[in-house]
Amino acid sequence: MTRSVVITGGGTGIGAACARLLAGQGDRVFIIGRRAAPLQALAAETGATALVGDAASGDSWRDALLPQIMRQAGRIDCLIASAGGMGLGALGDMTDDEWRQALDSNLNSAFASVRACLPALVNSGGNLLLVASIASLAAGPAACGYVTAKHGLIGLMRSVARDYGPLGVRANAICPGWVTTPMADEEMQPLMAAHGWTLEQAYREVCRDVPLRRPASPAEIAEACRFLCSPQASIITGATLVADGGAGAVDVPTLAFTSL
């Protein structure tokens, strides 16, 4: 049976890579985002169905997104909540609007998406995957909104795993490190401007102390997502898979000894 897969943030980055991979293996894929152009381009490339809407809006899910998915597919077997965005700035520097935007794009979008899709996932015995971050596990500098929202995703995932596991729904999260996405490219810009680096040099520098010494590609993260959403992961729920090139294994206080 062909699976019905819903991917938020599906127009670019990790969400787009997941759409390519899963559509390529025969799944029926629905990609959701706020910008029509990248969604439509990817839909033309992969055969996915593009749905323009705000994943953080319960009204958008109720009135438009969910009815279209159910009308066309009749079921949802997998939800990949990949919508996300910035949330930069130390706490004292953030405005109320910036704080709300960080929560909407990174946490509220996942909440609204999971809540809307849960009845269909219960009916299908399906699963969901939240695309979190190593910022879900530790704090980077001047990224209060992003770090807080990404930490919240882990709590959301665990709550769903506990409450809906008895109904047959699996819930997991993936925590990538640096990934060469458009959002990460944008984060490299201050480093490039300050040091005169190319984009490749900036990525190399931010990964200097990462054991694998490089960022991931979106396709690599998509492969990990595919596994967590597959029957091969049927006993895995409530889990957080870290895909960071080994960054989390580094004992930061010992970095000074590296050059000895």
From TrEMBL:
Residues 3-181 form the Ketoreductase domain. One of its GO terms (biological process) is monocarboxylic acid metabolic process. The keyword Oxidoreductase applies. CDD domains: SDR_c. Signal peptide: none annotated. Keywords: Oxidoreductase. Pfam families: adh_short_C2. Its EC number is 1.1.1.30. GO terms for molecular function: 3-hydroxybutyrate dehydrogenase activity. Belongs to the short-chain dehydrogenases/reductases (SDR) family. This is D-beta-hydroxybutyrate dehydrogenase. It comes from Serratia rubidaea (Serratia marinorubra). The gene is bdhA_2.
